[in-house]
Amino acid sequence: MTRRAVVTGVGHYLPERVVPNAEFEATLDTTDEWIRSRSGIERRHFAAEGEGTSDLATKAAQAALKDAGIEIDSVDAIILATSTADLTFPSAATMVQAALGMTRGFAFDVQAVCAGFVYALANANALIASGQCDRILVIGAETFSRIMDWTDRSTCVLFGDGAGALILEAKEGQGTSDDRGILSVDLHSDGRYRDLLYVDGGVSTKTTGYLRMQGNQVFRHAVEKLAATAEAALDKASLTSSDVDWIVPHQANIRIIQGTAKKMALPMSQVVVTVQDHGNTSAASIPLAMSVGKQRGQIKEGDLLVTEAIGGGLAWGAVVLRW
Ligand code: UT7
Q: What is the domain range of residue 305?
């Protein structure tokens, strides 16, 4: 028998304010047509004044707990993937822990930018497989609107705010690829690419800074690396892309999503796509897509999912899981 980390609940939260592309036409030399055709984004949500990443994360977590039908004190740990924590410290995860009324266990943030949720799933899987935890709340939550340079049309039209959460629970499997739960993980980073995507502020500069991106360079790496990491993860689980029911990709750009599906020889009808409605929500995009995909009736129990992401670092990776 093998201990598997199985998804038993999922939920998400999006801030109330929806900003369509057309809103940027008033302040920037851009058009709805450019944003749609180059990125696939039509609208995004922005958090309200005073609404922090931990607030979005808490609401997504409450939805996932409700979906799983469990109380917070039955959870052993909270792992929160974010690059936009409310404060330098404490971790946003401990703020969520307090907001949920959790009086036991432990909580920490994972910072791997857009690959954060994949890294968080890898951590949760390791804690469950090793027997240290039985139940983990894994959240991706971001307020990238707070690190946008509103005069930079090449970045500020691409990102949005939001949060998604999963409950992962230890269950015994047969140790085969037919098991439910996380079946394999493939992680990478290469710090030599720092300058392609970074924030030009932080503690040592005593500023928050703004996101800076060489979009077309990141695009090139994404197309090359995402299918490769997804296929490497499938290989580790003794599976191939023909076994996959759904790709749940990081939602940065529809052209990257299409390019990755094509390289994996899978049709777009087997890809969960939310980028048109959410923009790029960094570490939140995958759990948001999982939650929306389940709500739409796309993702069902027993389906084989491969989820992949790349972002600042560069950091990238993939997880194969049976829902
Ligand atoms: O989640 C983290 C990972 N991030 C990503 O995966 C993002 C990856 N990159 C991308 O999604 C795309 O590269 C972008 C959507 C950012 C840009 O698309 P692109 O096809 O790579 O365009 P480009 O950067 O090569 O720019 C083409 C032109 C440029 O003008 P010139 O130099 O050709 O005259 C830009 O100045 O488009 C111009 N441009 C814009 N025009 C209108 C850039 N932003 C805008 C804009 N509106 N908002």
A: 181-322
